[in-house]
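Before a colleague's protein record goes any further, I have to sign it off. Thanks in advance; the entry in question is below:
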Amino acid sequence: MAETLLSVGIDIGTSTTQLVISRLTLENRANPFSVPKVAIAEREVLYRSDIHFTPLLSDTVIDAQGVRAIVEEEYRKSGFDKGEIATGAVIITGETARKENAREVLSALSAFAGDFVVATAGPDLESILAARGAGADEYSGEKYADILHFDIGGGTANLSLWSHGELVQTGCLDVGGRLIKLDRDSGRITYVSPVITRAAGHLEHVGRGLAPAAPYRTPVVGDTAAPEALAPVIQTMVEALEQAAGLRPGRERMDAFLTQGTRWEPRTVPVVSFSGGVADCIDAPPDDWKAYGDIGVLLGRAIAASPAFQAAGRFRGAETIRATVIGAGAHSVEGSGSTICYRGGAFP
């Protein structure tokens, strides 16, 4: 007999915070005389929240009360009470996971995600959830193909490689649209992530310039933001992604942006797919490159213009900016059905 439960996914990312509520249908697919084998037979997204900019008190502190207010308001708009939610995941992703009070924010939101909340900020799980939310894993299984999925948000690009529907490896690069922020009115840079300086230092150390065809200077706060001035660092980010996909020789650019504590072994892939906020800027970028107050539009345009990515096969998933939160709400649950509960009496 099938059972249903409600699951929530809450994703607090570098750029955006969003929520989805899904209905999961569970079935026991084992025969009556076997150990139960419970599987999720159907996933239906019942509510998709608005996409909110993640509120911050400073470059290093998340506005916990602001995030909680967003979640409470979205629950109200959905028509579901948090008491109806059986399971789910609250995840803090990208650069937001490095904020000083990330764990405090997770704790404050755990009551909104049921009894079996998964609270995590790990890039490995984020990579998997994004690929599943976009459908890259299913594509790989159905086509018996290798596919590399990039989930590119504000602070990081999470990578997951799938072969014939099976996960091969995950990784993470510090490549994202909000690593450099700017004021749309004045056109001046207001924030430069330390990873930009770190990457420049790495490439200088290995004797490689960030932009061999033009002089390079690390952008700094107060600089006037112009596409031509930002082009060298953006192009280097794209080349790092190309190297991760085995579409460009070497790995020095990829290593410059490799997230500390993670590993990735490049492998040439026939098919790539993209999700995350930057994915929307690959296929349908806004006319104003400063639309979001960061370099996301320029990064998306540069990926779209990459001859290496143009030559590779492309899978366009059902979800882009919502892929991770869809994955968190609908793909973070597994049921074994083989546990027991025993009350009373004494074992012999």
In short: Residues 211-215 have pLDDT under 50 and may be disordered. The longest strand covers residues 16-28. The radius of gyration is 21 Å.
